[in-house]
Amino acid sequence: MFVFPLSFQVCKEDKLSRILERFLPFNSHASSYTFKFETRVLDMNKTLEENDIPDERELFLDLGLEDNFYIPALMIYFNDDLTEM
């Protein structure tokens, strides 16, 4: 297994398909991956919140923590579909 830690900020309004577009420069086969969060397959036509991934930064700030105390990790799984570059 290869771990590719990468993080970048996204707008709340961005659908996962837009996030995928931004990921393509790092991996030209990104469209051949399934995006998951906590074992759930994500709907690429929805935002993070619509996929039940809440923005909890305000909660962290209210608790005296940094707003980046926890960053949700999206896992991507390669689909062996033999797409071409």
Automatic annotation (TrEMBL):
InterPro entries: Cytochrome_b5_domain. One of its GO terms (molecular function) is metal ion binding. The keyword Iron applies. Keywords: Heme, Iron, Metal-binding. Belongs to the cytochrome b5 family. This is Uncharacterized protein. It comes from Timema cristinae. The lineage of its organism: Eukaryota, Metazoa, Ecdysozoa, Arthropoda, Hexapoda.
